[in-house]
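Quick one - first record:
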Amino acid sequence: MIRRCIRAVPPHSLSQLGRCGFSTSRWLLNELTTPKVNYEAKYAEKLQKRAIEQGLSIEQLKQKLREEETTKRKEKAAVNAQTTSATPNAPSTQVEKDKATSAAVPPVSIPTRKDSSPVKPLTELLNLEKLLQTPHTAEQISLLWRAYHASRSKGTGRGYLCATIPLDAYHKMASVASKYPCFILPVPREGAQIAEEKTSEDQKAYEMYFMEWGFHSAPPEPKSSITDLFTKPTPSNNPKTSTILFTPLQEYKQRTSFATPYLVLTNYTDLASSHGIVLSRGEITPSTSGSIDAGGDGRYMLSQQDAQLLAMGIQKFYLWSEDQGKGERQELLRTFHDNPEGFKWEELLKHTDFSA
């Protein structure tokens, strides 16, 4: 569920001599006993590198560094002056000195992380910078997305789902999900314990899965070249990234928020504004107990076929809009949230044919 870094010469390196606390006599002694070093030539390469990085000439960079140093000195002098005026009488005890020091030093602000989303960034899956260096259509990116997931699990693709969603379809689903973030979906299961009753038509049993949507911050629009690093950042036009968790209803009832989801779907919106698509990725939870999933080999909590049925259920119950009227599926979704007592899971079984 791919990443960058350039270090520059610290701004204070060039002004280190000017900040020394030596007396005039000490400075003269050093001048007489120490060979002079041509710092201009010594750091010429680093200066040139940093100037290129900032898009400046050497002289412009030097002027900028001098201005920064002057600003720092003024700020330091202002802090010292404020401290002196705030404490006219020197504290007599060590405790008073400590209090004065703590009052003079401004509190250190710890920057808060802006990447608090639990979603693994798309850049860990695709090299977006390299991808955008040459033009790619939405269809080409969709092929790359499918090929990437098909190569997982030693080329079997086992344990993963993937799809490409048109942006307008994602907007519709997200709009419905913002109002109805939870629902249940049936999965045919031999010997299921949750849906004990069986239909008279096909004598099938069903296991219910509880699904819940979660929305996270909108990702920034990916950049295609190094020159973009120097442009002023703008607010992202991408919609919010979303995740959908699928958990057996019985397990969710017992453990609620501590229940382990068997399938996690993530909808990446990084390329929504640039290419009009949303990349969807499903991850089936690996099995830790060695229990055999239905139609599987015991390595995952859910079979590949059941995971696909659950993913299709999203499209079946969430891809609609208000102007389409009150269809049976939409009415089931509304009833589940607005009138839970009137919800009948038997009506849900009428829509278990996810091929429709």
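second record:
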Amino acid sequence: MRLLVVEDDPNLNQQLVDALKEAGYAVDTASDGEEGHFLGDTEPYDAVVLDIGLPKMDGLTVIETWRKDGRKMPVLLLTARDRWSDKVAGIDAGADDYVAKPFHMEEVLARIRALVRRASGHASNEMECGPVRLDTRAGRVTVDGHLVKLTSHEYRLLAYLMLHQGKVVSRTELVEHLYDQDFDRDSNTIEVFVGRLRKKLGVDVIQTIRGLGYTVGMTGDAG
């Protein structure tokens, strides 16, 4: 999963990025509203953490512009304001949830997990496909109850496919959602990670749909 953090406080920005990367996300970052708006308008994010009080373009304007342009990614709004009217304004502008500063990082992580899974139609932190179970809260993958150790890239790949069970996901889409902006993107690396995942899982849950991409949870022309 790929996230965008838009926060002008450099210390808080870095804390959010570090925590989200530690939780297994690929993260891009911006320090003002204009840059944040541009990234959100041109890159496919699974969720955005957005401060309401930003230089150049405030958070409410950023959200409103995204929504008018048809951008539907979930947005978690960060606000230092205590007035309930500001929180209402954020939700009305198109934010999906908000956290008031100061906050505990665990709360931000929990709300991001909820936004990502709801956007994909999942109600629970745990997803299953055959004997494979993935727990987004704990960041754990098990097969028949046995823990499987994955790298961060392998985990993100499996989590994305399981969040989109029953759908064919192209290599291009995987590259766009699994790597941050600075990563040397090469769709051929997806094949490598899929091969490693299949070997580590030891069960045939990831299918190759020839000419289209990969899927879990559906039948198809496997290769």
